[in-house]
Amino acid sequence: MSRPAVIAALSALSLSLAAPVGAQTRHDTAAPIEFGADHIELQDRANRAVLSGNVKVRQAEMTLTAQRMTVAYTGQVIDGNPQVSRLDASGGVTVVRPDQTARSQFGVYDLNRRVITMLGSVRLTQANNTINGGRLTINLDTGRAVIDGSSVAGGAAPGGSGVTQAPNGRVTGTFSVPKRN
Predict the structure, then answer these.
(1) pTM
(2) What distances in angstroms separate CA 35 from CA 11, 57, 64, one per listed residue?
(3) What's the half-sphere exposure (Cβ side, CA atoms, 13 Å) at 165?
(4) Which pLDDT tens digit goes with each residue over 44-65?
(5) What CATH number is given for 3-19+26-174 in this structure?
């Protein structure tokens, strides 16, 4: 596919980015997506595009921001859109929905599995409730979200696994309690 075709196709992407934990309404996966970045590098032979600098992806009522994002596509184009298989985001990753915000160092959206995974200093906020951990995994088909204390770190842990634990390897948080008479 030529560079102009990829640029045109990327501008009309129809990805499905879904909501973090327990969203009340289903995300509109058929909605068009808008994206912006300071820079885009197309790597045609590798079937990917690299967006960098203040990356912002918006679809329906959800927004994903990061400093860098790699968009992997299959090479197939259907109705003028490349078939995206995965988004990898890094650097201040934030997923925002009308009632929730999730933040982390890294994020992966696997479109084939319909799973969003956020890694490294994860913080999920909804109203006055906050949960902190190392990894957040959201199954977009079931809506099930799991937060745990493990995380991928910048340096290797003892034994070279690259996996470290959140403080004490635990999930922490605060839940608000409604006022009672």
Answers:
(1) 0.73
(2) 7, 4, 9
(3) 7
(4) 899 999 999 999 988 777 788 9
(5) 2.60.450.10
